[in-house]
User: Fold these one by one.
Assistant:
Number 1:
Amino acid sequence: MAEAITDVQRGFEAALPELVAALGPEHVLTDFFHRAIRTTNASPMGLHLWEKLLPDVVVRPGSTAEVAEVVRIANRHKVPIVARGGGAGLADGATPLKRGIVVDIKRMHAVLEIDEENQTVTVQPGINMQELNKILRPLNLWYPDDPASYPVNAVGGRIGSGGWSLLGAGYGHVPDLVLSMEVVLPTGDVIRVGNGGARKIHKSSTGYRLKDLFLGHQGTLGICTEATLDLAPRPEAELPIFFATESYADSHRIIGALGRSGLRTIAGIFMFDQHKVEFLRRDDEAWIPLPSWVKSAAATILYGTRAEVEAARDVVFEIGGSLGGKYMGTEICEGDWASRHDRYHLAYHGRANGQIKLMSWSCEDAAINYSALPKVTREWHRIAADLVAKHPEHFDDWGMFTYTNGPFRAWGDYLTEIDIGVNELEMTEEIWRDWVQAKVDIARISVRAGGSVSAAHGGQREGEVDVSCYEELAEGQFDLMKSIKRMLDPNNIMNPGKYNLDEAYPGGES
Ligand SMILES: Cc1cc2nc3c(=O)[nH]c(=O)nc-3n(C[C@H](O)[C@H](O)[C@H](O)COP(=O)(O)OP(=O)(O)OC[C@H]3O[C@@H](n4cnc5c(N)ncnc54)[C@H](O)[C@@H]3O)c2cc1C
């Protein structure tokens, strides 16, 4: 082990002057501050772990050629290299587990082409969706990738994580919205992947589906340096409709019926469970207090022409009202939908024995079939309750959201998240072990219910990664992943340590 660290260190020392020569000293950052702010991502990481994850250097390339040169240098000297966009991932993807070089892609944020006739845009990976949509708005065009983290993600990070959008049931998720990409492979070669070899085509039957390989790989197979994205016309009307209910069971029936309605204007269907309603009532400034009989909520968001949305509204009211839902009124519906990108600024909102405690947010985000939702919800809360009972100063159950998960369809399976407050500041290794075990248990329940460990973020954080690789992907997929990784990245330089892929190499940890 000590030998391996020495080798990486030696490689880094040889690589550093070459990086400076390739990018110029102003884009090669070695000072502590710049490395420290790019050490972890938005998911909790106990302070006791921070120091060993600090990268050796941060580079800020400005072009595909510069990214390719940085990768070639890393490959030549066998130094780990980790791509980083907004750093708001929740799967520890941008966290350099083996230190080395962090490639901050945000300098590459140009819009390269807007094709109004074919409704596509070609961008560099560092642009974020909010900025992109500001540019597209005067053209009445829209890039409809809408995660809760919308203002802070880079398009490249969305691609690296294979992102999920709140509007996916209407407009598709990131893998559906990316038509083609330029990728720098771990050897420094530059390729283009798309539907077939094309740039702006939505469906092709030519060749393998290689594009999918480079969506959601968490920076382990290459660095995206350019992407061509699908655009939608700006919808004429938007209508959020929220129903308050007396029970989880009522909300569950409403979301199922809304999905089965087949309404094409539905872009998403959501549900808040009782713990979530209690949490919002307790601690969310944007939440307008509701009567105590309200125990849960079911909601949908409609987009389309004015005529389509008005017709769909009547159907939605009929379904919600007939199944025990009480319409929450325009103010709450519009307010809550408008705050969907802000809802997670929750620091200080942990409670330990009734007292406010600084905690950060952890999100477990499985994909679960509709029929399994009640059971998974009960079992996850039981795990959270055991954890909170054991460590009341360190964890807090912030409840669950459930959202439609299928692209272009509002039924079938749901992104199901449990939000847990984690006291990172007072974390110890012993308590961290209990936390990791709780995440293993949560992930295992998802897989045993026929679901997936992660619908949006990537199932590769400590603990859950073993369930992903050895249980969810047990039927040959994990073995194939290792073969692909070894073939594309012979020296294991691209984000090593992720998805247990070190096992693909001789001497790799198990
Ligand atoms: C408040 C909050 C709400 C969230 N809500 C959602 C949500 O609704 N839906 C959702 O999907 N996610 C959500 N997330 C998670 C997160 O924002 C997404 O995973 C997002 O896609 C990460 O983008 P980023 O630019 O921040 O990427 P980063 O965190 O920087 O990186 C993510 C991964 O992509 C890799 N990567 C970065 N750039 C590139 C590149 N150019 N080429 C190849 N790989 C690259 C990184 O190495 C890493 O593995 C949320 C996060 C927060 C904090």
Number 2:
Amino acid sequence: MKITIIGAGNMGGAIARGLAKGTIFAENEITCTTKSNATLEKLRSTNPQMNLTPDNIRAVAGADIILFAVKPWLMKEVIEQVKPYLAPDRSQIYISVAAGIPCQQLEEWIESYNVIRVIPNTAIEIGESMTFITASDLSMPQIGIVGKIFSELGNTMIVPESQLAACTALASCGIAFAMRYIQASAQGGVEIGIKASDAQKIVEHTVIGAAKLLLAKEAHPAVEIDKVTTPGGITIRGLNEMEHAGFSSAVIRGLKECVK
Ligand SMILES: NC(=O)c1ccc[n+]([C@@H]2O[C@H](COP(=O)([O-])OP(=O)(O)OC[C@H]3O[C@@H](n4cnc5c(N)ncnc54)[C@H](OP(=O)(O)O)[C@@H]3O)[C@@H](O)[C@H]2O)c1
């Protein structure tokens, strides 16, 4: 199976590098394009066997899967450029990672229903993305293939397109919220006497541990919080003080702002 990634920048490049480490595509079955040679050269230094070219038209020839990863405002132009060179029966799978362009619009531009939207987050760089997959018809068999591909780059969830914006707020914006919690905790750690680099490492591992614990036990956070909050103890005092300052409310309001 061959995949072509049009626009191998931050997101497209991370997908390409991740897939090259996986089992579905050999490195030489991955073709990437960018606008400038400089970005291609960066990819060449890490993945010398990838097919790297600035020529989108040459790149789509013979591909089974074409993944568009240019900025949203360039999508129409790039699709129009390669459209005459796509399989005439549109038997390829067309994936878009562009935020904000609905399936129906992509289907019109590509003139195919084999269109799947995928929204990863930046943890794709280390194979830990929370990736959402959607299409106009969620029963199409191509969804399974795309799910397998993105499972090599982290976790995946198939969602109706109507929920994509909310899911993006939780995972793509949410990664920044989680990092802000880490930053704030580490800052607090310094004030209570831990050196900055240690404080950050402590909080990072604490957050990883908390998430893994909930995932492994399929537990509700309140159940696990209950276990560490001794009556009259320091954890409940700390938690309540955070709530008095509006912690949960601030997180919920921030998320709601993302989908306005
Ligand atoms: N970053 C994220 O967290 C994230 C998450 C989900 C979805 N996305 C989506 O991913 C897409 C790309 O975002 P990004 O952050 O990766 O942007 P980016 O780093 O700027 O990457 C875009 C790439 O497209 C290339 N490009 C521009 N015009 C082109 C053309 N005509 N033909 C071929 N390649 C072309 C650019 O090449 P040069 O490098 O040579 O300029 C660049 O490498 C966007 O649609 C965004 O909505 C991003």
